[in-house]
Specification:
The chain has 304 residues and is of the alpha/beta class. It has a single domain, classed as 3-Layer(aba) Sandwich (Rossmann fold). The protein has nine helices and 13 strands. Helix 1 links the parallel strand 2 and strand 3. Helix 1 packs across helix 7, helix 2 packs parallel to helix 4 and helix 4 runs parallel beside helix 5. The longest helix is centred in the N-terminal third of the chain and has 22 residues. It is globular, with a radius of gyration of 19 Å. About 3% of the residues have low confidence.
Amino acid sequence: MSDLDTAGPATPGTGPARWLVTGAGGMLGHDLLAVLGRHPGARVTAATRADLDLTDAAAVKSAVAGHDLVVNAAAWTDVDAAETREAEATEVNGTGVTNLAAACAATGARLLHVSTDYVFAGDGREPYPEDHPTAPVNAYGRGKLVGEQAVARLLPDTGYVVRTAWLYGAHGRNFVATMLRLAAERETLEVVDDQHGQPTWSYALAGRLVALGDAARAGRAPAGVYHGTASGRTTWYGLARAAYALRGLDPDRIRPTTSEHFRRPAPRPAYSVLGHARWALAGLSPMPDWHDQLAQALSGDWPT
């Protein structure tokens, strides 16, 4: 694990805070470190997968000790592999999160745990509110739900679950990067147009997690579930077309198709649009529209 001491003027009303970021080597983890690297008063410990095995309860307890805020960006993210290796995926996404929550309960640290839209059935027609009943349709979603339940059970007053979806960013594999890479390899691409969601920029989510952590530490944010997705909605087809247009490529090179033509081992929710009502309780507005986030992400016009 590595320490990034960026102590400066303290955030008003909170004083310097010690942050632990798990999953620091991933897409969201990279962005969390970038945001916290410029955050006044933040002292940051970065823990990659190689540094910290979340399934090792003793190691987790040792890593959490001395921190005020823990942001869990670590996860088993291979949705299709989870379908045939559910026990392994749940060991990370469920048992690992349970270990983190227990360690935070023992030390008094607040936990911000990143979860997923896949805890819902995906058969809705209106945005899912934060308290909507869960009903995951695949192994990945079931494992993530185990983690959510552990946070709620062990940290009723200091645990925060932030569900996100359709995440893309500058680091790691993601849909937007794949579409732009394939633009140089294929004249046309078929993309599904019957799955609806909210493409969310990992850098914007990182900023929101840090803001929520500040609000939580200052006593302004009630514990519980928040939905960390962009505003608005589109389909994978709409996202691909928008990415092409923003890069000066012909969006008509993207052709619509259905999920039936792209069968995968794990079923995907057809509707993953989430509501954002609880941000108001923390004094925060919903995240910006997905297209605005995408435009900024592809412009490269943000601090790195």
